[in-house]
Amino acid sequence: MNNSHRDVDVEERRIEKKSDSSLVASTFIKYAAYIIIIFGILYFLVRYVFPMFQ
After folding, report:
1. Diameter over CA atoms, the chain
2. Per its UniProt entry, which superkingdom is the organism in (predicted)?
3. What pLDDT does 7 receive?
4. DSSP codes, 7-45
C-alpha cells in the first residue's frame, strides 16, 4: 500500500473590502497634500521662475 499522505497547509487569505473611514481619510489627506504641493511648485514656477526669462 502506498500511503504517502501529505499534509498540505492551505493558506487561507481573506480579502476584505473594509470601508474604514480612518483609512479613507488618511488616503484622502495624503493625496490632497500631494496636490497642494504640486500646485505650490507650479505657482512658484509661474510667479518667480518664468518672469526671469522675459
Report:
1. 91
2. Bacteria
3. 55
4. ---PPP--------HHHHHHHHHHHHHHHHHHHHHHHHI
Please give the average pLDDT of every successive group of 10 residues along the chain, which has 54 residues: 56 67 92 98 92 81
pLDDT at position 12, please?
A: 66
13: number of CA atoms within 13 Å, CB side? 1
pLDDT at residue 49, rounded to an integer: 87
- Please give the Cα distance from 25 to 31 (Å, whole number): 10
Q: What are phi and psi of 45, to 5 degrees?
A: -60, -45
Radius of gyration (C-alpha) of the chain in whole angstroms: 27
**Amino acid identity at 22:** S
